[in-house]
Q: What sequence folds into this?
C-alpha cells in the first residue's frame, strides 16, 4: 500500500510550473521576432525572382517562336495592371495594337499577391511601355530599343530588384540582381 501513496504524491508534483511555461513562451516569441524580418525578406526575394524568371522565359519564348514560325513576335508588358502582366503576340507588320490583345498572362501565374511586386521598362512612359519586337530571325527589330530592360521589384522596399535586359541586336538576354547599371538593375521606384 505504500507504493500507491508514493505514486499519488509524485503525480501531484509532475509537470511544468507557471514560470517555466512563461519563460518558454517568451523565448519562442523572441525567436519569432528575430526571424520574422528575415522570413519576409526571403519571401520578397522569392516573389521577385519568380517574376524575373517568368519575364526572362517570355522574352526567350517570343524570340524562339519568331525564329520557328518566321513571323515577328512581340512581348508586350502592362505595367499599369495589378499585378503586372505580359503577352506574347504575333507582329506581322512589326506593330502591336494593345486593344486587341486577349492572351494576357499575369506575372507569377496568380501566385503573387496583388500589390506585392512592380514592373518597369526603361523606355516609353510608365503606363505604356513599348513592346519588344523580335524579327523572323530572332533579332531585335530596332536599334532604338537596345538595351531593353525590364525591372521587377518589391513594392515593400527598394530591394530586392531583379531585371532582365536585352542587350544586343541579336537578342542577347542577361539577368541581373540589385546593384546599379551596367552590371545591376536600374532603379524602378516610382
A:
Amino acid at each position: 500500500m505504500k507504493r500507491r501513496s508514493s505514486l499519488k504524491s509524485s503525480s501531484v508534483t509532475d509537470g511544468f510550473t507557471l514560470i517555466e511555461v512563461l519563460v518558454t513562451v517568451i523565448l519562442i516569441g523572441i525567436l519569432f521576432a528575430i526571424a520574422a524580418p528575415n522570413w519576409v525578406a526571403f519571401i520578397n526575394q522569392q516573389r521577385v525572382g519568380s517574376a524575373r524568371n517568368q519575364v526572362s522565359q517570355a522574352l526567350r519564348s517570343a524570340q524562339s517562336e519568331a525564329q520557328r514560325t518566321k513571323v515577328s513576335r512581340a512581348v508586350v508588358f502592362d505595367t499599369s495592371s495589378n499585378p503586372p502582366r505580359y503577352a506574347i503576340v504575333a507582329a506581322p507588320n512589326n506593330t502591336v495594337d494593345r486593344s486587341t490583345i486577349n492572351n494576357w498572362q499575369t506575372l507569377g501565374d496568380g501566385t503573387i499577391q496583388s500589390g506585392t511586386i512592380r514592373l518597369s521598362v526603361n523606355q516609353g512612359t510608365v503606363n505604356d511601355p513599348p513592346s519588344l519586337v523580335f524579327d523572323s530571325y530572332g533579332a531585335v527589330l530596332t536599334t532604338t530599343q537596345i538595351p531593353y530592360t525590364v525591372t521587377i521589384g518589391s513594392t515593400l522596399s527598394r530591394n530586392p530588384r531583379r531585371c532582365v535586359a536585352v542587350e544586343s541586336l541579336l537578342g542577347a538576354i542577361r539577368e541581373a540582381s540589385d546593384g546599379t547599371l551596367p552590371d545591376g538593375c536600374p532603379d524602378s521606384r516610382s
